[in-house]
Amino acid sequence: MPPAERPAFLSLARATGAEPAPAPAPAVPQPQPAPPLIGRASELETLAQRLTDPACRLLTLTGPGGIGKTSLAIALAARVGGSFPDGMLTLALAGVQRPPEAVSAVAAALGLRPEHYQAATAQVVSILAPRRQLLVLDNLEHLLNDPELVELIAALLGGAPGVRLLVTSRERLRLRDEWVYEVGGLATADEAAASDAVLLFVERARRVQSIFALTPANAAAVNQICRLVGGTPLAIELAASWLPTLSPAEIAAELERSLELLDSDARDLPARHRSVRAVFEGSWRLLNADEQRLLARLALFRSGFTREGAEFVAGARLPQLATLMQKSLVRREGERYTLHELIRQFAGEHLRAAGEAEATAQRFVDYYRSLAAQIAAGLSTEGELTWIGEIADEADNLRAALRAALTLRQGDAGASLCMSLCALWAVRGMTREGLQWVEQFLALAPLSDAASGRLLTIAALMQQLLGEWDRALRSAEQALALLPADDDAARPMATYGAGLAALDQGDFSSARRYLAASLAYAHDSAQRATSAAVLAITGLTYYFEGLPDEARAHYRQALALAEQDNLVFIVAYTTYGFGALAVLEGDSSGAAQVREALTIFQRYDYKILIAYCLETLAAHAGLLDDHERAGRLYGAAEQLRATHQLVVTPGIQPMYRRLAAIARGPLDDVVWEAALAAGRQLSQAEAVHLALGEA
């Protein structure tokens, strides 16, 4: 028995014929000094300023389990503890099982005898009133239903002016004087870089495998692990513990499947931290049945969600969302709500266990089918760039909706989603992915003719972009044979795709025939964007046939239509066309129009048109005899095309060769190849800055 508890034990044991004294509070373990934190430097600086601000009496660190609240609180207390003449007192309350014991634990830590516990609140305030001290209360979330504990904290704020309280909890205390700081995961990186999360992984990895080192061969997998766990320190430590058995790539693959990997048999870890599932089970038990049901349904969202989406799919009401936010299970980022990836996996297990997965998936598909169609319909009134930006925010959720529609074997829903996503796939260089989705839906049986026709329409457009022109023409013709005559959305797209495929093969007369048919289908103001695009592409066919005046005439018609509805993308495309024609004819003034268009294309990451602009501005640099700069721009365009499979088609080869010749000028092979190689090393952003004449 610890010596400090022996007098109380003897007093109770010897008491006879008297009312037993209240049982002593359980021993309160004091956290041991932790090693220096990896990362968190900026957070420590921010929190230190807050905790030493005279206006801040109560600072609560909130966040999901395992996110590192305790470690951050200990480091923060160590940093600012010297500012308090009476030092600091740290109480770890995770081991206190019943709310009534919490105040007794605080009293015991201050030296009160058990017989005084019944008046503990007044005694604690009396002891602390004259002190200038930091009081750290760790892990309060399971005790917040205790009115006595909340009363004690409120009493300290009112009666002990020199005391500051630093609290860690998965849920905020909801007191008026409370300052709240949400603790997130460690910083991760999109590329193979040594982020804070990666540094922690490496440090933990070396504890179990002393020879472990971050190398070019394993860096991507280590980054993937850190991203999959959202930079959660506990999850990173548990994942790293598997290194003697699994490689980083194998660990990442297992994490994508389930939470089972994130278990530990370490004897010195608290039971609640020996698995991520145990951490989340603790948070789950703090929810009522309605909150549990809502969290489980939200698991279907993959890239955050809006309030409207949560209401439609999960039946969420604003007070419920607020509660999940207060309990650190949902976060708000800008206009969207987010769910930590590990919490999402955990909640998904409960959704399946409750037997609600299929019904919730159906609502999820219905919501995103409707949302994607609404955004796509806004193309004619809001401009394609706005539409693409909005739909890109939901890209991961739309992929999840596609997967759900496949699982539910819903071809019509899949065709509708693919129609709405077509432009996003084209703009972002995701044509191979788009074609794979279409082919999976085409493999479903049975499919309606309308669904098959729409899917083949999208297939034609993707195949055309991938350079599979014969397949694209066949797909477009099959689509036209299946589509209903009144399908004013898909039939213009099918004939447009056929026209592009013919253009890419250099069959300009056939291209114009298909494009004219597309223009005839797109006959009203709701399809003005399609009409403008068709006119612009028709102008391109005339240019390739050596008829620049006809090309300009069609560009002017396209521009007039686009400007009526502020179709930003079509305006930018036709502006590029005018500028490119000028440069190809040796007029350097056209570069200003190309740069104007490039600014728009870069803002929305339209890969293929960025490549066109870089190639045209390379030719402009050649006109100015700056051939080395021209080579770098051309090399950057080559790299962009290679990375995203942006094919140089037979139809555009004449223009491509002409631009290259102007850019290269008199440079010999060695100098030109060196300039191209330098350009291939540029990132897309660096190449665009170079093209725009910026540093």
Count of the domains: 5
Mean of residue pLDDT? 85
Total beta-strand segments: 7
* CATH topology descriptor of the largest domain: Serine Threonine Protein Phosphatase 5, Tetratricopeptide repeat
CATH H-level superfamily of the largest domain: Tetratricopeptide repeat domain
User: Strand share of the residues?
Assistant: under 5%
Assigned CATH class of the largest domain: Mainly Alpha
Word description of this protein:
The chain has five domains: 25-182, P-loop containing nucleotide triphosphate hydrolases (Rossmann fold, 3-Layer(aba) Sandwich); 196-277; 287-355, Arc Repressor Mutant, subunit A, CATH 1.10.10.10; 362-566, Tetratricopeptide repeat domain (Serine Threonine Protein Phosphatase 5, Tetratricopeptide repeat, Alpha Horseshoe); 583-691, no CATH class. It is built from 34 helices and seven strands. Helix 6 (147-159) links the parallel strand 3 (133-138) and strand 4. Helix 2 (41-51) crosses helix 3, helix 7 runs parallel beside helix 9 (233-240) and helix 25 (508-521) runs antiparallel to helix 26. The chain is elongated and about 110 Å long.
List the helices and strands and how they pair.
Layout: H1 6-14, H2 41-51, E1 58-62, H3 69-80, E2 88-92, H4 100-109, H5 120-128, E3 133-138, H6 147-159, E4 163-169, E5 178-182, H7 196-208, H8 219-228, H9 233-240, H10 248-257, H11 276-285, H12 289-298, H13 307-314, H14 318-326, E6 331-333, E7 336-338, H15 341-353, H16 357-377, H17 379-382, H18 384-393, H19 395-407, H20 411-427, H21 431-442, H22 449-465, H23 469-482, H24 490-504, H25 508-521, H26 528-544, H27 548-564, H28 568-584, H29 591-603, H30 607-623, H31 627-643, H32 653-664, H33 669-680, H34 684-691
Helix pairs in contact: 2-3, 4-5, 5-6, 7-9, 8-10, 12-15, 13-16, 16-19, 16-20, 19-20, 20-21, 20-22, 21-22, 22-23, 22-24, 23-24, 24-25, 24-26, 25-26, 26-27, 26-28, 27-28, 28-29, 28-30, 29-30, 30-31, 30-32, 31-33, 31-34
